[in-house]
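> call design_seq(struct)
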């Protein structure tokens, strides 16, 4: 059942939050031994919270948009009623004093917070315990591995993640769900592990575009403690995403400078996609300056991580993975002038895309190099996400293609800065259009 349908059933009294909680717990009990999506789960707490939500409905209290809907929360997002341990032994047993901004928004909307989903170490590269629900020998991606896997396995209809490079879009592609990385600053980050103020985004997972829009509406808003959020009107993501299309979208197929990193099967799949969409899609080449985007991202990311994770490194260097130590150590060597130049260059690249978005509704590009790779020692390459994270543009991964092993392969749509609602409307159009093409073939 979609999150929207479940919320309506609970609102109408045909189901209860207790029903939803019991169904999710049963699915978790059945699939968690193989998937291992949860870092913290207290079944008694889940059921007790569901009963509390039902009592509010019986008392005639106003119901929020997600009343009784189960949601998973990545274990770098603070929860006052549950541990938040950031995927590292250095934070084992950590109990936040208050909820993160987004958790407060969830609670105010009546959401049932089921538990904390597994993250890679400090939301970077070193993998956690989670397996891909489609094949436990394969990675689910990272760093929001548990959130993507929990939604894909049917354990919860919605989950929160984060992205500083490819940590929402990539696992969404590997696990075959919808993953949304909104415009930088659309969703407040107070109470979320700080890795890079410049690059960090709160993201989300759902099984349908409309559910992603619903969750985005609940989370978006001004966060007075996050200087990158803005006071403004609500984005109306769901209303826009579900509205009729005033014009049929025009799409730009962008290979990006890392096209050679995609697997041959991905090349073939996107060639078929472009052919199927016909006149609705045009191949567009990015300006030469975008060849530096990955270098710019690395400069900003590693310097910011060195700053924000420095105290953990100084206190427990030997308890960090080799990949995390290397990242921090390289970041400490970045000169301030190079960091500032990288930030300025990223802004120039974002501005350079304005003419493209005046002509096209969205960019179409891979979400990952291919389907989820075999093995659990790494989480796969985020290379097809890096540019859009650097620029702070909204991006969504749609489970529309299949790899040679029969596993999901995400199509990534990228929108113009601040145009999240139109991006989701275009995503809904593309999903429906490809379904129509499949029916006709």
């Amino acid at each position: 059942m979609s999150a929207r349908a479940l919320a309506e059933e609970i609102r109408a009294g045909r189901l209860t939050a207790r029903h939803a909680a019991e169904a999710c717990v049963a699915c978790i009990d059945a699939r968690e031994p193989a998937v291992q999506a949860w870092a913290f789960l207290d079944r008694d707490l889940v059921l007790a919270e569901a009963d509390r939500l039902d009592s509010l409905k019986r008392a005639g209290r106003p119901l929020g948009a997600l009343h009784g809907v189960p949601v998973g929360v990545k274990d770098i997002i603070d929860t006052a009623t549950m541990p938040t341990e950031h995927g590292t032994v250095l934070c084992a047993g950590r109990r936040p004093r208050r909820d993160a901004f987004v958790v407060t928004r969830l609670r105010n909307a009546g959401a049932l917070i089921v538990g904390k989903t597994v993250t890679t170490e400090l939301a970077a590269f070193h993998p956690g315990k989670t397996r891909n629900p489609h094949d436990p020998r394969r990675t689910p991606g990272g760093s929001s591995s548990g959130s993507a896997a929990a939604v894909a396995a049917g354990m919860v209809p919605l989950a929160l993640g984060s992205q500083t490079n490819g940590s929402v879009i990539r696992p969404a592609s590997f696990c075959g769900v919808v993953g949304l990385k909104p415009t930088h600053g659309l969703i407040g980050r107070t109470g979320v592990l700080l890795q890079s103020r410049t690059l960090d985004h709160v993201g989300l997972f759902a099984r349908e575009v409309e559910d992603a829009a619903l969750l985005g509406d609940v989370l978006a808003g001004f966060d007075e403690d996050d200087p990158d959020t803005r006071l403004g009107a609500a984005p109306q993501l769901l209303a826009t995403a579900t509205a009729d299309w005033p014009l049929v979208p025009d799409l730009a197929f962008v290979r990006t400078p890392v096209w050679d990193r995609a697997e041959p099967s991905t090349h073939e799949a996107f060639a078929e996609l472009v052919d199927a969409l016909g006149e609705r899609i045009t191949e567009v080449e990015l300006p030469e300056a975008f060849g530096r985007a990955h270098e710019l991202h690395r400069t900003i990311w590693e310097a910011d991580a060195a700053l924000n994770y420095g105290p953990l490194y100084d206190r427990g260097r030997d308890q960090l993975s080799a990949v995390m130590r290397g990242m921090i150590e390289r970041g400490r060597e970045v000169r301030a002038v190079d960091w500032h130049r990288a930030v300025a260059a990223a802004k120039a690249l974002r501005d350079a895309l304005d003419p493209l978005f005046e002509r096209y509704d969205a960019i179409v590009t891979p979400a990952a190099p291919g389907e989820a790779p075999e093995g659990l020692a790494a989480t796969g390459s985020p290379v097809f996400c890096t540019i859009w994270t650097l620029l702070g543009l909204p991006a969504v991964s749609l489970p529309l293609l299949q790899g040679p092993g029969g596993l999901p392969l995400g199509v990534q749509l990228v929108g113009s800065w601040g145009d999240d609602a139109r991006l989701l409307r275009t995503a809904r159009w593309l999903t429906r259009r490809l379904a129509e093409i499949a029916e006709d073939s």
